[in-house]
Amino acid sequence: MKPIFKSVLFSAISIFSTATLAGCATTSPADTPTTSASGDYYPITITNYNYAGEEVSLTFNEAPNRVLAIYQGSIETMIALGLTDHVIASYGLDNAIKPEWEDDLALMKYNENMFSPDTETVLSLQPDLIFAWGSIFSDKKLKDVDFWHDRNINTYINSNTRAGGHPRTLSKEYTDILNIGKIFNANEAATALVDSMQYEIEAALDAAADMPSQTALLIEFYEGNITNYGATSLGGDMITSLGGTLLAPNHGNISKEEIVALNPDVIFLCYLPFSESDTTDVATEIVLNKLLLDPAFASLDAIKNNRIHPVMLGDMYASGPRTLDGIKIFSAGLYPKATN
């Protein structure tokens, strides 16, 4: 990626939030971005994936005008890039939208009664782009992407939800934002958003340059077990990109005894709000108490030094514009003195 400068921070986002773009999408076997002989912006070609995680090429002859945005990251990416007027329906918020985005969500015809649409509903809406997680394109849900491409309906799968065991990384979140920017000719807004994320990382690394590397665990209490998020998770990649050391780099369950033995400098606790109406304070208190009130963890330095930090799943999984929030949470937890 190009060098990071403070001057590129969100200025372009406000410019593009009022831009009006028009068009529809079709599919093509081409696999590289192109421009027409007349020098016009379209067609543009993007590499994405099918349900199995295999690469597919998607060509857009115009900016899509009938978009279905499904799940948190997709909805919020469209909002952050000023593209709400292209969305005809949205579904699947795991947690409440940010207050500053509520007016935008109202323009996207969010359906509170259906977490994700079925095939018949999507066909009736006649979209030209379905922007969602990879899991929705199973035969039990919306069918694979070829079903839609055959009907001249394009698809875009969030890269960090690609099937096949691929590592989930910050670079893939950047790619998604930049790709959506390309599809809608909102490149300046997309670049500004990605640059702001990269700037946050570089600023944290610079501020903590003289500090020793901090050891960390990223865990979640889930269905009676404790899940460890390793280096191939997006949250793990955020921590290592910020210079932290993951003490348990492999993803999987971890025991209380293992956590105590590892004794990290800082522990990040992943949580998912139980409903859209849950406040952050309620949700974080519940997850914090799983550590703080359990005597098995009393010897941990992270508890003694007040270095337990909740992080919402939406800030560290297919997070779109919330990637910036995740970076800030991990940065503040790793380097509290340097980033305050």
The CATH architecture of the largest domain would be 3-Layer(aba) Sandwich
Major pleated sheet = 6 strands, mixed
- Along the chain, the helix and strand elements come as HEEEHEHHEHEHHEEHEEHEHHEHH
The figure for the number of domains is 2
Strand content: 15-25%
CA-to-CA gap between the ends? Answer: 27 Å
**CATH uppermost class of the largest domain:** Alpha Beta
Question: What is the overall shape?
Answer: globular
CATH topology of the largest domain: Rossmann fold
CATH H-level superfamily title of the largest domain: Nitrogenase molybdenum iron protein domain
Number of DSSP helical runs? 13
Low-pLDDT windows of residues = 1-38
Q: Name the quaternary structure.
A: single chain
Let me know the average pLDDT. Answer: 88
Describe what this molecule looks like in 3D:
- By secondary structure, this protein is of the alpha/beta class.
- It has two domains: 6-194, Nitrogenase molybdenum iron protein domain (Rossmann fold), CATH 3.40.50; 208-339, Rossmann fold.
- The chain is built from 13 helices and twelve strands.
- The strands form three sheets. Strands 7, 8, 9, 10, 11 and 12 form a six-stranded mixed β-sheet that branches. It has a four-stranded parallel β-sheet with strand order 4-3-5-6. The chain has a two-stranded antiparallel sheet with strand order 1-2.
- Helix 6 (170-183) packs antiparallel against helix 7 (187-207).
- It is globular.
- It starts with 10 loop residues before the first helix and ends with a helix.
- The model is unreliable at 1-38 (pLDDT under 50).
